[in-house]
Amino acid sequence: MAKRKINMGMVGGGPGSFIGRVHHMAAMLDGQIELVCGAFSSNPEKSKVTGAEYYLPADRVYDSYQEMITEEAKLPEGVRMDFVCIVTPNHVHFEPAKLAMENGFHVVCDKPLALDADEAEVLVRIKEETGMLFALTHTYSGYPMVKEARKLVKDGELGKIRKVVVEYPQGWLSEPLEKTDHVQASWRGDPKKSGKTCCVGDIGTHAFHLAEYVSGLKVEELMSDLSTLVPNRVLDDDANMLLHFRGGARGVLFASQISAGEENQVILQVYGEKGGLEFRQHEPNTLTIKWLHKPMEVRRTGTAFVSNIAAYNTRTPAGHPEGYLEAFANIYRNAATCMQHLLDGTEPPEEALDFPSIYDGLRGMRFVDKAVESSGNKEWVQF
Amino acid sequence: MAKRKINMGMVGGGPGSFIGRVHHMAAMLDGQIELVCGAFSSNPEKSKVTGAEYYLPADRVYDSYQEMITEEAKLPEGVRMDFVCIVTPNHVHFEPAKLAMENGFHVVCDKPLALDADEAEVLVRIKEETGMLFALTHTYSGYPMVKEARKLVKDGELGKIRKVVVEYPQGWLSEPLEKTDHVQASWRGDPKKSGKTCCVGDIGTHAFHLAEYVSGLKVEELMSDLSTLVPNRVLDDDANMLLHFRGGARGVLFASQISAGEENQVILQVYGEKGGLEFRQHEPNTLTIKWLHKPMEVRRTGTAFVSNIAAYNTRTPAGHPEGYLEAFANIYRNAATCMQHLLDGTEPPEEALDFPSIYDGLRGMRFVDKAVESSGNKEWVQF
Amino acid sequence: MAKRKINMGMVGGGPGSFIGRVHHMAAMLDGQIELVCGAFSSNPEKSKVTGAEYYLPADRVYDSYQEMITEEAKLPEGVRMDFVCIVTPNHVHFEPAKLAMENGFHVVCDKPLALDADEAEVLVRIKEETGMLFALTHTYSGYPMVKEARKLVKDGELGKIRKVVVEYPQGWLSEPLEKTDHVQASWRGDPKKSGKTCCVGDIGTHAFHLAEYVSGLKVEELMSDLSTLVPNRVLDDDANMLLHFRGGARGVLFASQISAGEENQVILQVYGEKGGLEFRQHEPNTLTIKWLHKPMEVRRTGTAFVSNIAAYNTRTPAGHPEGYLEAFANIYRNAATCMQHLLDGTEPPEEALDFPSIYDGLRGMRFVDKAVESSGNKEWVQF
Amino acid sequence: MAKRKINMGMVGGGPGSFIGRVHHMAAMLDGQIELVCGAFSSNPEKSKVTGAEYYLPADRVYDSYQEMITEEAKLPEGVRMDFVCIVTPNHVHFEPAKLAMENGFHVVCDKPLALDADEAEVLVRIKEETGMLFALTHTYSGYPMVKEARKLVKDGELGKIRKVVVEYPQGWLSEPLEKTDHVQASWRGDPKKSGKTCCVGDIGTHAFHLAEYVSGLKVEELMSDLSTLVPNRVLDDDANMLLHFRGGARGVLFASQISAGEENQVILQVYGEKGGLEFRQHEPNTLTIKWLHKPMEVRRTGTAFVSNIAAYNTRTPAGHPEGYLEAFANIYRNAATCMQHLLDGTEPPEEALDFPSIYDGLRGMRFVDKAVESSGNKEWVQF
Fold first, then answer.
1. For chain A, which chains pass the contact test of at least 3 CB pairs under 8 Å?
2. Which of D198, D96, D135, D195 is CA-nearest to residue D330?
3. What's the predicted TM-score (pTM) here?
């Protein structure tokens, strides 16, 4: 393994950014990654302010991501950044990701991958051409109990899967916050920055990824009903869908930003011939398994009774609850571990390869396109 | 109020019946109703066995519901039954209900009301012509916290309703029990006895009633996806739907009998402009209210902090949990209270009028018809 | 089995009584018991009012329990009451229980058994001399999941028991309600009616019974700390104790009536060498088992995965929650089943013998005496 | 504020250490602290291994804490460590803490502070003489909802406090792990390393701190019952206590390492005249408030409805669960913020001063002494 930390450069995350701070904490947690540079804002002054808050030397705080990528590429290995993390609004994912890979930098990118499937396909091509590592932060798949759930399904413990229900209710857009100066709401409500949807792209893609990740099944057909419940809002704030999975399983997916009073609940239920499982993100250290022919079972993060893959993604013993930042950090740690092995020319452990990829990102963008199409036509669409 | 108990005659509920025993316990709980006669089975021997178990005199145990209705009608008021409770499979609801009303008896009928909307309309007409009282046992609306939820919505505490999610997962038909001698499963799996659906009629109607009862809204359009997940099964065992309510609210309804490991969960979530509410039937004494602009609140059965209508339907102080039988008993108690006032020629209290009616039954049958139509055509249907 | 219902006469339970109504509902639920007479109040007018509410004929409503016992004894078997249920305040348990047994009537008595261990011992002697059946309504032991817990311990599944924690917090006496006209509070706060304690006798005895019933262990030594937290109150309203069980297990018991905001929570935790169990009365259909060497397990009322004794005390399938009244009704049903077998001269099933007995009542009264003694002297006392 | 990160040196935390990794993650999370040196083990080879894992240069990895403190003191400010974090077993807290403060280094020390109150008093004296900052990692007080609870009590929202119940059950020592090579168990079971107790010192002190921290009350008298339930074990593994607080409130405290199947639950309940609160560490983002005169309320980490002090100690929005590491990190962040202000000569914000102090540590050691004394003599002891 490398004798040095992996160097990170950040794109976005300037003053007022929520997700920038989250990425930084997730990257710092394990002491394996160092933030060495950043282009935190398209406004150079704001970029400087954030750079100082992160104790960066002034010469590693850049005015633009273009400048950062160009200048860092000139620095020697070990000094220059190894990867960029992209924490900008959706419309500023494509360009920096493309440029970074083309200049030999790995990428950790916030979701959704891009504005549509066309952009996503370009990124996939470049990733394949450059061979750079690409991680997408579908955080919820980082929880140990989500990985346990996936393992359980994969091992056939539930039998053939028949039904998947995934719910992602939020309430924070119950009022037209996008018409105030609310940083998070304003860009999400603006089609130029958010893309053709708000709710589906922002949180529906998380739910979609979780459903496919855990069930191991692919959606092949969907019926979508996107709505805008807050008067005069431009984009959708509520999305309900019926799903058909390849192989015959049925599904329900709903995501909402107007489920008033909901925080950021994410609930996944998967049912097979022999039993069902339930994961509720507000209490993420618990996985409930409801067996058809024996009593209900509760698996818990950090116990001796979970799979290797769950244990690999756990930091504390049972009863020392892990949370959102640890799930997020698992993506960083696994990606960084792979980067270290790339530096060393060694093979990473299989467990470290388990983080959301650019292909998950592409699939998410297709999901967005299909959801919009189905809802517009009020009919089932093939995936 | 009447100086005597209200007399009940039972149709169905012979050996092996689950729901017959439930109706009996629900009717007995408050000491207001007496079982005076029964036609418990189409098999006279079986009817006698059950009659003896209920300590009935032999001459009040009948060989058929036709005989019971005819013979009881000859007895004097106060001796004869005042109402019939119908606890037979779906295909034996229509005839006894019709006959009972035509002979001057009130009816408490298990759900769904009949086999289809046509039958239901006939019953509605007869009910209106005869003026008899008719209660339908949509049990879940009998819970105090469901009534509290309805009151909350009605009083506008949540603001305009925007979204309703209702879930009814069961797992007991994960295997083809209908091909064994399982009493409950065999008739439910047989279209002649169950009607054109299994899952939708049996539990989907409960979910549908609950959604409309609490939200106060009417579904005007739905998109349904009925499936049969267990191989070689005749009827549906899983049903997922998207709902549009009059006035613009959106909804999701799903019911399932193949959600392996689920018992009999019923979950209702209703979201308005100002907050949302959540009711989970497995813990029915709790109503969670998630406010947009203040902390989450938990209302509990039996406390001093609930509405009159909730209190009216409660028997024990807070912390003495009430359950399914008490919810069921509320339908009987309210209906019987109305019958007592009819005997007395007095007005019942407004609270006693709150039980599911024949109109709810008709609406449920229309729901079944529409769900089947939408799923078959894979398109949205108007309600 | 008897061809007739078991006849019940009630002592106490007049206007304003909470527990009288509860006993009545519990007795009615299974249709096995009929209320035939009552002496509902020491005030004959009040007794009449309640008698009419229960639809009793006037000649079976008595002015006093003495009159009721004398007069009923003159009626023929099958007409006269078979047993009395005593639902009066503590100071009116001893006399009617004694008189009933001496006149050949079985007894179902509310807890605590009497005012002190001396009274209790007299009742035990009379019970043994007369051979009458005597049931004490320690309701919480009537829950199916409490019986499941007991079975689990008895079968050695948890290994040798090491620790028992039982908690019974209420908050309803956080204010001096006993100085108002609050019916329940006034007699409980009066030493003449309640005995030498309020909190210990009223709810501490429930906790004590539950701990011994489930663990199968007997307390041999205790250290008690009784307090009166509400100013100017006469009796204790909070009780905390350390327990030593025969065989070495340790325990903690606390009961409180000033745990403001608590409803009527009862929590039992029992730990053995191999695992622990947890029962929480507010959600009584769940028994959580925390294993040392395997994942946590959840057993649920009504499932196929529980013991015979739990199933015997269950009325509805899984997911149709049972509550306090059903637990209460189990005591009545089991006692009444034994009475029916006594009438028939047959042996009752072993499961029906499982209800709290007069010996549990005696033990409870000793517990009260020891708790008062220990707290007064601030030292450990032998049991 | 300082333009540089705060420099940390670690004492202990070598191979196999659990708590060393936890301290490191907690220190890293916010990007405010840098690990610059360490004496990770009394075995220099092991110290080197750990140093390399943390990417430390070889010359900052020391063979002993004495060497580290001496050598670091020679380095210039900004290069040398600013504080030591002490993550060794209990018997190696006193010496390095003393030496560090005497050489001008701040201290973050794992709990309990020392082996007994005598050692603790010496450390208090030195802290006062040197003026160094001293933080003790009573982690559970770092949770935002614990701080919310404290604020609620302090603001009088619950009225005068009457009762405090604190529970800390673990099950991991249900078997004699200390007789295996289990790193955590062996030193904890050894009186030379652990002190005069195992359970009381290790986790009882956490419970005691939490009770006093949230209630704002001081224990003045206690009755303790320490037991050793696992045969042939040297120290206590179960501790149950009755508490009297100054001002009249009553309390119960129990801690256990043989509550088989329990992970690391910590539960606090505080009751006042107007309501009670409940905090359960396994779900630490929820604070339940049970009001006497209004419905139960649930306050949640990250919502807009909590106090400034809770918000100050929160990193993510509501519904993005925080856990144990974030609570731990709050102690580091607050202490480091104070250190930065000391460097700058400015006043830290009041919120940053809220971390467990050396005085809490002294109080914890007195608690240990009193608990042992009371249990040995089987009598109440003054505090």
1. B, C, D
2. D135
3. 0.97
